[in-house]
Structures are given as structure tokens and as C-alpha cells.
Design a protein that fits this description.
By secondary structure, the chain is of the alpha+beta class. The protein has one domain: Alpha-Beta Plaits (2-Layer Sandwich), CATH 3.30.70.100. Helices cover about 25% and strands about 40% of the residues. It has a four-stranded antiparallel β-sheet. Strand 2 and strand 3 form a beta hairpin.
């Protein structure tokens, strides 16, 4: 498995805008090899909030296929002339190969 992590630091009170954007249905869910997308929220310190987007793919090849797809490129081109929202302080992106996964056994995950 392969995970792309996107970490966005935003001004206080604006994390819901990022959470809403990434929580809406989109074309990524229809892509071959897509596993899931998780949106995490963390209060960093007064004045800032952090949103982490974890996108899991069956493999890095599927992720590359998505990155090069017409649908993905068209989505970015549509936003090309738009300026970055003022509430976004910083964005970091990382790509990771999943090396281990632990899952719940039995009923211990209520």
C-alpha cells in the first residue's frame, strides 16, 4: 500500500473549510486502486489549526496513474488562476510506502 499525506496549517477557525472540501464526494473515489481518504484535525496552538489528509492507494503505481489522469490534471487546471486562500498558512506533502498494518482482533474495537 501507498499513502500520500498532505498537511495544511490554517488560521484558527478556518479548518472546517478544508475539512469540508476534502470530505465532499469527488472523482477520486472512482479511481482504480483508491482505498480511502481520511481527514484529521488537530488544534496546533492559538491562532493555528492543522488538517491532515491521508489518501491510501493499493500501490504507488495506482497513485501515479491518478496523478497523471486527465480528471486529476483538469481539476488542477481549473484552479490554476485562483489564488491560494488567505487562511492557508502552509502546505506540506509527503508520500509513504506502508510497511506494516495492525488490525483489531475480535470485538475489542467498539
Amino acid at each position: 500500500m501507498f499513502v500520500q499525506l498532505r498537511r495544511l496549517t490554517v488560521t484558527e477557525g478556518n479548518s472546517d473549510q478544508v475539512v469540508d472540501r476534502f470530505s465532499k464526494a469527488g472523482i477520486i473515489e472512482e479511481q482504480e486502486g483508491f482505498v480511502d481518504l481520511k481527514v484529521l484535525l488537530k488544534q496546533v496552538r492559538r491562532g493555528e489549526e492543522e488538517v491532515i489528509i491521508l489518501v491510501t492507494w493499493e500501490s504507488e503505481d495506482y497513485w501515479k496513474q491518478w496523478e497523471k489522469s486527465d480528471a486529476h490534471i483538469a481539476g488542477h487546471k481549473a484552479k490554476c488562476n485562483q489564488s491560494k486562500p488567505e487562511y492557508i498558512i502552509n502546505t506540506e506533502v509527503g508520500k509513504y510506502e506502508v510497511r506494516a498494518i495492525k488490525k483489531a482482533v475480535g470485538n475489542n474495537h467498539k
